[in-house]
UniProtKB/TrEMBL annotation:
Name of protein: Uncharacterized protein
Transmembrane feature ranges: 58-79, 91-109, 121-140
Keywords: Membrane, Transmembrane, Transmembrane helix
Length: 160
């Protein structure tokens, strides 16, 4: 049994997963190209000023963009070919990525707390709640679509 039947209250789960997959692929490729352009630019001092004291942040963004692109390909392939394995791998990969980024955000918040005002912390926590609330909803939608595909594949075997 699927956990939810519609994505965003008006799309079927398949349409919602296609929309999510294509938008995630587009945004991750744009992010990937932005990171590559920033890495190959000659003025590293402006990048260091923008991203922090080292280029480590840039390479974390690069790794995240690559993982997001791979996850989007898994989702799109799984939806188009009705392969439940790839959709489940998408859910696993996205869950791990969100947990890792949540740990990274909280470490950054703890390590850099002296530079934040209390208003900045509330804005930061509001952003985290909104971001991860949407992430949980879309992961739940993807898992529901996985369950629907799995039930459709194994339903004839159960009825006999």
């Amino acid at each position: 049994m699927a956990l939810i039947r519609f994505c965003c209250c008006c799309f079927s789960l398949r349409s919602g997963m296609l929309l999510l997959g294509w938008s995630q692929a587009l945004l991750s490729l744009l992010s990937l190209s932005g990171v590559i352009i920033a890495d190959s630019s000659e003025s590293t001092s402006s990048i260091n000023q923008l991203l922090g004291k080292s280029l480590r942040t840039l390479y974390v963004l690069l790794g995240g963009s690559v993982i997001q692109t791979i996850a989007a390909v898994f989702l799109l392939y799984g939806v188009y070919m009705r392969k439940s394995y790839y959709i489940l791998e998408y859910v696993k990969l996205e869950t791990l990525l969100h947990i890792a980024s949540l740990i990274e955000f909280f470490l950054y918040l703890v390590l850099e707390h002296s530079t934040f005002s209390s208003q900045d912390i509330y804005i930061f926590l509001g952003f985290l709640a909104l971001n991860y609330g949407l992430a949980v909803y879309y992961l739940l939608a993807a898992y529901s679509y996985y369950r629907i595909i799995t039930e459709d594949i194994y339903a004839p075997l159960i009825q006999t």
